[in-house]
UniProtKB/TrEMBL annotation:
The keyword Transmembrane helix is annotated on this UniProt entry: yes
Pfam families for the chain: DUF389 (PF04087)
Spans through the membrane: 113-135, 141-161, 173-193, 213-235, 242-266, 272-297
Keyword terms: Membrane, Transmembrane, Transmembrane helix
Protein name: Uncharacterized hydrophobic domain-containing protein
């Protein structure tokens, strides 16, 4: 379930309560009159099953509550009551399959912000990948994959395209367009310093065999990117963040960027172009799979909403004399 905390101006309280009173899937409805100071009005709280939350939030927005008041959403880890059971029965569907689109947009918008933290994580990941390449260490490369934060902007692009939010898609694109060059520049600088101080040499790139997959993309590279993109978007829409770790480990984005940066310093242009192609394949594959996955999820949401509407009408007709 999800918990909604609503700050409702006095003039909207009656309309909001009327909506919540007839909405399926709502439980534990409370109102504290005059508790909200900014905006001045009432505090209304409720729990709603996940499969009904998205539509309810949209209707609250249509009432003007998001502009005149506030809608705050948080997850409910455990709810034990007869009201919870009744709410689950009222709203057909399966909670893990349900999507709260406003929450997805908010999460991807936050994760795709071009910030110092994002640049720091991406740079550290690229540096780790560069070290893994020099040492021919797959373990270090995997560590770089886990540290990399690039899936957030990729998810933002996918969500922005499917939800027609051009600002969100543009934000993700700009973050990637700035982040990867910055991270690669720092990695190339570190490789240059390492070469000048004797820590690394060009011969080490020629002899690595454990990490050569990074600059040798193929059809399976695209397949992996597509599968990872689909899994990542399902994880994002369902709120199952643990699955994202597997996505990070499976895609060769940060390792390719790190490899290209190091190979550039040593003039290994074949490896540079191979790594760049690997990076491009993974980025495009993840976005394409993300868009397709979101499209399917969205269609499923529309079908489920129509079915819920038919059930509601059927129940109403049985009650009529």
């Amino acid at each position: 379930m999800s918990h909604l905390r609503l700050l409702v101006p006095a003039e909207l309280s009656a309309a909001v309560l009327a909506l919540l009173g007839r909405y399926p899937g709502v439980a534990h409805l409370t109102q504290v009159r005059g508790a909200s100071l900014a905006p001045a009005g009432d505090l209304i709280e409720l729990d709603v099953v996940r499969e009904a939350a998205d539509e309810l939030i949209e209707e609250l927005q249509q009432l003007g509550l998001s502009s005149a008041g506030a809608i705050c959403v948080s997850p409910v880890d455990l709810s034990l009551s007869a009201g919870s059971i009744r709410a689950e029965r009222q709203a057909p569907g399966n909670s893990p399959d349900s999507v709260i689109w406003q929450q997805v947009e908010s999460r991807t918008g936050t994760d795709s912000a071009l910030s110092g933290t994002f640049l720091a994580f991406l740079t550290i990941a690229a540096l780790l990948a560069g070290i893994g390449v020099v040492l021919d260490s797959p373990i270090t490369v995997v560590g770089a994959m886990v540290v990399g934060p690039e899936f957030g902007p990729l998810a933002a692009i996918s969500v922005g395209l499917i939800r027609r939010r051009p600002r969100l898609a543009r934000r993700g694109f700009v973050t990637l367009a700035v982040g990867f060059p910055v991270a690669m520049l720092f990695t190339a600088g570190a490789a240059w310093v390492g070469a000048r101080t004797g820590l690394v040499n060009a011969g080490e790139l020629a002899t690595n065999t454990q990490t050569e997959f990074i600059y040798k993309p193929g059809v399976l590279s695209l397949v992996v990117a597509l599968l990872a993109g689909a899994a990542g978007m399902l994880s994002t829409t369902s709120g199952k963040s643990a699955a994202l770790v597997g996505v990070f480990i499976s895609v060769t984005t940060v390792p390719a960027a790190g490899y290209a940066a190091v190979a550039t310093v040593f003039g290994e242009w074949h490896q540079v172009w191979g790594s760049a192609l690997q990076l491009l394949i993974n980025l495009i594959g993840i976005v394409v799979a993300g868009v397709v996955t979101l499209f399917v999820v969205r269609r499923f949401d529309v079908f489920r909403a129509a079915r819920r509407g038919r059930r509601a009408r059927s129940k109403l007709e049985t009650r009529l004399p």
